[in-house]
Amino acid sequence: MSDPLPRITPAQRRARLGQRHLLAPSARAARVEAVADAVVGLHATDPATVYLSACARLREPGAGEVERALYEDVSLVKLLSMRRTIFAVTTELAPVVGSSTARAIAVRERATLLKHLRERAEEHWDEARLAEVEKAVLAAVAERGEATTAEVAEDVPALRERIVMAPGKPYAARQTVGSRLLRLLASDGHLRRCRPRGSWTSSLYPWALVPPLPDLPVREAKAELARRWLAAYGPATEADLKWWTGWTVTDTRRALADIGAEGVTLAEGPGYVVPGDVPGDDEPVAGDEPWAALLPGLDPTAMGWQARGWYLDPDHVKPLFDGSGNIGPTVWWNGRIVGGWAQRANGEVVWRALTDVGREATAAVAAEAARLSGWLGEVRVTPRFRTPLERELAS
């Protein structure tokens, strides 16, 4: 009879978050690249999330440190990758993300765009015209150095043509070709987003050419991404990894096998850790270093697993998520989500606990709210995906 698999409890999983995700004060990082690698990528669909997620984990929070990495050193790059979500990852990890997920997504995005252009555009489009326009776009960006979509459209008028999305539906809309095509060229690895026009919360950013990412063997890239994710988020289930990456079941199982992932037993059932990562007697436990955090909507820790019952009370899902499954700003205490927060128009950061957290937690959360207010200064942040509790607190 085989030995039973090691059991890892929800409390042990929560104890790991403070250190591995750099949320405990002693674990905070000096540079944003260390933050991005610790969580295997910062969610970047909402521009503000990158800054808020990074600064929650930095010893000295400030937008300038994030801007340095994104726009000066360009040591962080944004890729349309896991789950068709934009992630900011380090340049070291970018080839892994590109070969394991981003390139396959770019292929699907191209096919979808071409289908929409053929069926819904105002003028005739085919593969030849799309290739011709793409070549013109890259030439225009090269000539300008960097340019917004509207500026490129001055040089390439085809970008101003429109596509009807969801025709015949109440929510039908008309999008410009440029809004879709430059995003595609970015997902294909030809363009990168530059410093936005306006504040760091703005989505009005110019584009610039970027050197192509190195090609890695796809299977090796998937294994490396799985290894990094499991080291940061493990223990976790096969379903968690499949959900986070957007891979097929076959690819997920192959990647786990390729890295020699060790089986463990979780409250949800079978789980995995990277080899040698079963908790030992010397591993910190919950309460060794109490910590509080105010994390933004779509933060990688909050969105790191498909099964969230070990850190999120199911009764709190409704106030903290929007109707599409996007989590809003959350308040954490020792590895659990215990409430939500928002910033009001006057700049005040307000929060509410959804459960009794006690005096120690209340004081710690209040200190984090003051820390957040301190580095935000005059900046006002409204999440792109608003949730019931965030709207209520912000009003």
From TrEMBL:
Matching Pfam families: AlkZ-like
UniProt name for this protein: Winged helix DNA-binding domain-containing protein
Organism expressing this protein natively: Streptomyces bingchenggensis (strain BCW-1)
Taxonomic classification: Bacteria, Bacillati, Actinomycetota, Actinomycetes, Kitasatosporales
